[in-house]
C-alpha cells in the first residue's frame, strides 16, 4: 500500500495535459522554470521507461538507448564545439592577415602558413617571404619602407587605408548579419547563459540561427581588429551546440531541468576549447555559470570538455599541437621577493576590474536609455574605424590580440627575434635556450616599452566602449591583454632593476650577476590572471585555466596571489563581476548563489498581498464556478492560484497553475457535455452534493498540485532565499497556523534583495 | 518596518540558551545537526559583529580578524598537514628499511639516504654500499648470498626471521596504541568523515588524541609491511588538523555547519599531500567526501591544498622535489588500438572493485557479529605474520607498496637496473633515454612476470582481510598496486606481441620494427586508475589525480576510458563504493546525494505515527502544564515536539527542541518564582487569561521555532528526499490543509530508502 495514491502527485498531471496540446510548451518565454517539477517529471519518465523495459526486448533496448543518450549528447557536443573552435581559429587567422596582405601561392593561407610552406630555410626570414605580399606591394609593386609611425611612405599609407577598409567591411558584415538574422548572437552571451542555467526561458537564445550567425559573425568581429575576444562567445556557441543536440532526445528536449544539465556541460566544453583547459573548463562551468550542478553532470562535463579539446587538437589550428596560441613553458623558478610585484599586479587587476565594470555599465546604460542605442550599426562602424585608425601605427595593437598576449607571455629565448628581446649582448645560440642571464635592455626594449604603454592606454579605453556592442564580443582576451601589457612592463622594470642593482638587499640573495632570475613573461601571465580575475571574479577556475596554460605546478602560487589580491581589491569596490552587472542591467531574474543575504527580514515582510493591497486571488475547493475562474484568469496575470478549503477558514489545500487551468477549462468546454459557465469547479476528491437542477460540475483535482511549497510568515528571509536557491522554486506560499496568508515569488525575492541592497527593485523585470 | 518582528526568528533563541549553560553543547553525540539552524545562527553572529564593528576601532579590528579567520585556519591546516605528511613519509621510509638492515654511518638514515651520502660514484652500486648492512651481515659478519626464493642460506633465514619480527613488533605497537589511547584512529576514516561532513556528530573522532595516535600508528602500520596505504588515513589526519584549528576561532568551534566547511577544505589538503595533487584533492573533496560545499569553500580548499602541497615540497621527503614517490613522465604517445587493452583493464578494475567490496564487507560483518571481533590485537598480529611470511621471499612484495607502484609505473629508460627492464640487447647510454625501441624480453622480464603474478594473487587476497582491522589502513595504495601489477603484466604482453608480430593488422599501422610504440608503465598506471575507480567509484577526481601524477594531458584519455569502464562494470554489480558500503555496515545516517530515489511513495507513507501507532506527541500552545511537559520529556526520546493551537484543531504553530525545553524549564524552576508543576506553559505572544488563583504561567515563546519545515501528506517522497538532502533537515512536519498529521525524521527517510531497496531498515542506527 506504499505505492497508493501517487496518481495525484505533481508529476503525473503533465502527461494528461501534454498530449492533447503538443504544440504548447510548458513554460512561456521569459519565465522561470520550476526545478522541483521538472525533476519530478523526469523521475516519472524514468520510472515509466524502467517498468516498460521489462516487457519486451525492444523496450529494453530503448531504455538502454535512453540511459546512454546523455553520453551520446556529450560526445556530439564535444565533437561539434571542438570542430567549430578549430574552424573559427583558422578563419580568424586568415582574415586577420587578409587585412594586411595576401598569400600569392594560395590565397587561403594565412601569413604564417604562407611563409612556412614557401621557405623553411632560416628562422629569422620567416616573416619576410616572397610569397606573402602586402596590399600596397601587390598593387603598386613597391614594397613598404618601414618608417616610424605616422610619417609613412605612400605604400604605408595605402596599407593603412586598406587595413581600415577591411576592418570596416568585416565589422559592418558582422553587425548587419547579427541585426538581420539573429539579434541574440551579440555580446559574450555568458550573462544570459548564467540566467538560462539558473532556470529562465529565453526562446531562440540557443537556437540554430544563433549558432550559425554567432559562429560567422564571431570570425568577422575578431578579424576586424576590434578589442574583443572569441573566448566568451565560444561558450555561447558550445551551449547552442548543446541545445541543438538536446532536441535529438526527448529526455532532454522536453525537460527544461535536464536540458540545463546538458548546457552546463556544454559551457565546460566551450571554455575547454577556448583556453585548451578541460579541467579549467569544468571548474569554470561549476564555479561561474552553472546553478544546479549534480555530480553526474561533473563527470559528463569533463567528458565533453575532453572530447572537445581532443577534437580541436586533431584540427591543430596553430600548427604547434597546442590548443591555444599562448601556451608557454617557463624554466626558471620564481623567488619569494617577487611576490611583492605580483601582488601589486593583483591590485592593478582589481582596480582595472572596478574601472572597467563601472565605466562599461555606465556606457551600456547610456546606450540603453539614450538615442545611442538606436544606431547600433553606426556605433560599431565608428568604434571599428577609431580602433583601426589608432591600432595600425602601433605594432603591438596592429596584430591580433592573441598574438600580442602570446608574445608578452613568452620568455626571451635565444631564437626570439621580437623587439621585446632586444637585449644588449644577445648571446648566440651556443648557450642553451633556457639559461640566458639577465642583461641590460637594448634600445628595442625601451622602444617596446613606450609602444606597450600606449597600447595599454588604448586597450583600456577602447575595450570599455567595445564590450556590449551589437556584435559577438568576449572580454577574456582584452582583459588578459591589458594585464599582460602591464605585467610585462613591470616585469622588465624589475628585471632591469635587478640587473643594475645586484647589491640591493632585496636582490642580493637570489639574483647574482650573470644569473637568470627574473622572467618578464611570467609577470605578463600573472598580470593577465589578475586583470581577468578583477573583471570576472573567477577564482579557482581562473587559476586552473592559467595553470593549464603553463608548464607546471611551480607557478600556481604567483597566479593565486595575484588572483586573490585582485578579487579582494575589486570586491572592496563592489561585489558584482561584469557578468552579474550585466544581468542586473538587463533585469534578468537571477538569484546569485554567492550573495549572502544577511538582513533580518521575515517572509511576512516580503509576501504579497502587502498591507492595503486587495486580498490574494484564491480559488476555493468546491464553491467556484467556471465563470469565476475565467474572470480570475482574465483579470490577473499570475502564474498560478492557491486553492483553499473556503474563504472563511483559508486552509490551504493546493496550488493550481494558470496554464493548466486554462487548458483544462478549454478542454472541458469543448469535449465534456454539460460544462457551462455556471458549472461548479471542484478540487476535492468527491463531487460536492449539489441539487439535480445545477449544471454538471467540473472536476479538476488532477491538475491540482497537492504539495505546494509553504513557509510560515515568521520564517527569516535568509531561509526563504536559501530555499528558493537550493530547490529552484518559482513561488512559495506563506501560512500562519495553517491559514494561507500570501505568496512569495522569485521576483518578490529578487526585488526584496535589491531593495535591501539599496538598488532599484523595479530593475527586476521578469518573473 | 521591514525589520520588525524578527526577534522571534529561529536564530536568536540560541543566544539566550547558550550563555547560561556554556558547558552544554548544542547537539548530542551521535546525532544529526540541523544545517538551516546552523546557517541562521552564523548569519546572526555575522550581523552582530558587523553592527558592532561600527562602534569602535577595536570592534572593527575584531570584525576584520573574524573575516580573515577562515584564511588563517586554511593556512594553518595546510602547514600542519603538509608537515605531518612529510614526517610520515620520512618515518615510513626509515622504518620500512629498518626491517631489513641499518645504516652504520647514521642509524636514522634510510637505505637510500645512507647509500646516497656514502658513495655517489656509480649508479648501479647505489644499492650495495658498505654503510648499509643487513641485520644478518651486521650480526654474523657474513653477507647474505642471494639465492632463489625459499632455498636461502643461513643469513637469508636470519634476515627473513628478523623481518617478520620487526613487522610483528610494529603492528603490535600500532594496534595497542590504537586500542589504549584512541579507538577512533583505526581504519581509513573516510566513511566516518563523509558521515560527519553530511552533518553527523561523532565526538572525539577528529580530536587531538586521534590526530596524535593516528599519525604515530599510521607510520607503524605502513612500516610493518601490511597491505595498506597511508593515503586515506592522511585525509583523516588532515581533518583532525582542521578540527584542531577550528577550536582557535569561536566562529568555527561553536558552529557545526561552519566547522564542516573547514573540514571539507582539510580533506582536500589531505588528498593534496597524499598524491601531490592539489586540484585533484579539491575535486576529491567536492566529489567524494563533502556534502554541502559552498563555492567559498572551493576557493579556500584550493588554498589549503596548495599550502599543504608546498609545505610538503619544501620538506622534500623523497629527495626528488616531487610530492609522491610514483610521479612519472612518459614521452611516447599512445595509439587508438591500445584503447582495447585499456578498456580490458577497466573491466578488470571493475571486477576487482566488486570482488573486493563484497568480500571485505562479508569479512567485516563476520568480524562484527562473531567472536573474531573480540580479539583485534590477535587478528592484527596474525595477519601481519602471514603477510610478512609470504611477502619476504618475493622481491615485489618485500619492498614497500609505494616503491612497487613507482617501479611498475616507470618506463624502462637506459639507466634502469630493474629486473623488469631486462630486455635483450639493452642498448648503452649512447641513445637518448626516451627513444628506446621495443625489444624482446630477456629472462629477467619473464622471471619478473611470474613474481608479479604471485604478488598479484597475494595482494588481492591479503588486502581483503587487512582493510577494516583495528589499525590505520588506507586502501588507495593496495588497490593501485593490484591494478599496477595487472596493468604492467598486460603492458608487457602487448609489447611483446607487438614486437613479435609487427605484421599483424592491428600493429601494422603504428608499430614499425625498431619503434618504441608500447609503454608498459602507462598500462600499469591505467590499471591502477581502473582498480582504484572500481573500489572507490571516484570519477573526475580520480582522473585528475592521475593526470597530476603524469606529465601531460596526453594520457587523460586512456585513464578516462579505464575509469569509465571500471565504474560501469562495478556499478552493474552494485551501486555502493567501498566507503558507502562501510557507512551502511556501520549504520550511519548518511543520505547519499548520488542515490536517485525513484519510487512512487508519498510523505504520508513514511511519516510517523503509522496507522495503529499512538498519536503524535504534541504540545498545545496554551493548555499544557509544566508537569505535562516534564512527563512527555521523560516518557519519550524524541528530539523535539510540534506545538499546535489545540488538540482539536491540530493547527501547527511551531516546533520546540527537546533540549531547549529541558533547559528552559530547569532554568525557570531555579530562577523564576512561582513556576511550579501545575504552571501552564504557553507559547502564544500574550499570556492566557487565567484565574488569579492559578500559579504563574511560564512563557516559552522565545524557544519556539516559528518556522518549522512542513510538507503536505501528498508530497512525493522523491521531493521530500531532495529537500532533506539540499536543506540538510533533521526533521520535517507533515500537514494536510493546515492540520498537523505527523513527522518525518532523517532516520525515517533513510529507513524508508533502505526498505525500498530491499535492505534491512533496522540497519540505520542513529538519528
TrEMBL record, chains A, B:
GO terms for molecular function: antiporter activity; ATP binding; voltage-gated chloride channel activity. InterPro entries: CBS_dom (IPR000644), CBS_dom_sf (IPR046342), Cl-channel_core (IPR014743), Cl_channel-4 (IPR002246), ClC (IPR001807). The chain crosses the membrane at residues 68-92, 160-182, 202-222, 234-250, 262-286, 339-363, 375-392, 448-468, 475-494, 522-547. SUPFAM superfamilies: CBS-domain pair, Clc chloride channel. One of its GO terms (cellular component) is early endosome. CDD domains: CBS_pair_voltage-gated_CLC_euk_bac (cd04591), ClC_3_like (cd03684). The keyword DNA-binding does not apply. It is found in: Endosome membrane; Membrane. Residues 607-671, 704-762 form the CBS domain. PANTHER family: CHLORIDE CHANNEL PROTEIN, H(+)_CL(-) EXCHANGE TRANSPORTER 4. This is Chloride channel protein. It comes from Oreochromis aureus (Israeli tilapia). The lineage of its organism: Eukaryota, Metazoa, Chordata, Craniata, Vertebrata. The gene is CLCN4.
